[in-house]
Amino acid sequence: MNTKLKPLVNALLQAGFKMKTLANAIQKGGQGKTFATCHLAFDGAARGLRVVVIDLDPQGNASHTLAHYASGLSSSQLYSGDEDLISSVFGGRDNAGISLIGKDAGLANIEQMETEDAASELRMQIEKLSEYFDLCLIDTPPFISKLMASALYSSDYVMSPVEPETYSIQGVQAMVSVIQNIRVRGNPGLKFIGMFPNRVNYRDQRQLDNLASMRTAFKDLVMPFDCRQRGSFAEAQGDQIPVWQIKKTSARVAAKEVRVMTQFVFEKMEIVQ
Ligand SMILES: Nc1ncnc2c1ncn2[C@@H]1O[C@H](COP(=O)(O)OP(=O)(O)O)[C@@H](O)[C@H]1O
Ligand SMILES: [Mg+2]
Fold first, then answer.
1. Partner of 136 for a Cys bridge, out of 21, 86, 122, 251, CB 3.0 to 4.6 A?
2. How far, in Å, from the CA of 235 to the mean position of ligand 1?
C-alpha cells in the first residue's frame, strides 16, 4: 500500500504543497494520543513525507517511542524566541523520514508564560519548520495547559483519541469546547478531524453501548471506524516500532486497523486522496 501511494505524495509536494500541522489532543491520559501520533509519523514517513514530531508532553512517551529519530532539538527550545534555531538544526540536513523534537525538563517552565506569548513563539517556529518538513505532528499533555493551548493555536488540524468510557467521553466533550474557544480567540482555521474511538474492548458491552451513544450524540465528529484494545499496539509502542513491523499474525489485523485511521486522517488533511 505504501509504495503505491508514494508517487501521489510526491506529485502533491511538487504542486507547492505546504507543511500541514496536526495536534493530537484530549485532556485525559491513556486515550491514544501518543499511539496515534507515532503511527501517523511512521506511516507518513513510509509514504515519503518529511515528518517532524514535536513532543509537548512532559511525560515524554512519544520521545521514548521515537527515540531513534531524535533531532537533537528539545521542545522547550521552541518557546525561546530564537529565530535561527530551526535553520541551525535542520538547514543543510537531509530531513527525509522522521525527526523528533523531544521533551525536556524545560517544558515545565512554559506554564509560567502568557498563553499568547507561548502560542506566538511556537507558531513562529512551526512556520520555520515548514521550510524543511511536509507534516508536523504535535503530541500534547493530558491536561488543559499553556502547552496544549499553544499547540492548538499553532495547528491546522486537531484530532482527539478517545476510549469509550464515561469519563473519556466527558473529556472529549470539554475538548470540543476548547477547540471552539481557540477558533474564536485566534486560530479560526483550526479543523477538528474528529474523535478517534480507540482501545475499544468488544467483549465489554458497556463500551460498545458507550461508543454507540457517542456516535448518536456527536455524529460526524466521530471517525467512522475504531481501533480495538490489542496487545500488539502497546507492544509496538514499547518496542519503538510501528505495529506492522511486529511479526505475529495478531499484529497483521492490528496493522490493518491502524492504517484505516492513518489513511482517513491523511485524506482529511488532503495529504493523500
Ligand atoms: N488500541 C490500543 N490497544 C491496546 N493498547 C493501546 C491502544 N492504544 C494505546 N494503547 C496503549 O495504552 C497506553 C496509553 O496510550 P497512549 O497513546 O500513550 O495514550 P495517551 O497519549 O493519550 O496518554 C499505552 O501504553 C499504549 O501503548
Ligand atoms: Mg501520551
1. 21
2. 10
State which residues form the domain around 126: 19-268
Domain count, the chain: 1
Residue 269 has pLDDT above 70, yes or no: yes
Residue 225: pLDDT over 90: yes
CATH of the domain at 248: 3.40.50.300
Q: Identify whether 76 is part of a domain.
A: yes
- pLDDT at res. 166: 83
Pocket test of ligand 1: the residue of 24, 28, 34 to mutate, having most ligand atoms within 8 Å of its CB, is: 34
Give me the mean pLDDT over the 204-220 stretch.
94
Whether the CB of 227 sits within 6 Å of ligand 1: yes
- Side-chain half-sphere of 16: how many Cα atoms within 13 Å? 0
Establish if 148 belongs to a structural domain. yes
Residue 11 belongs to a domain = no
Segment 203-228 shows an average pLDDT of 95
Asked if residue 82 belongs to a domain, the reply is yes
Q: Is residue 214's pLDDT more than 80?
A: yes
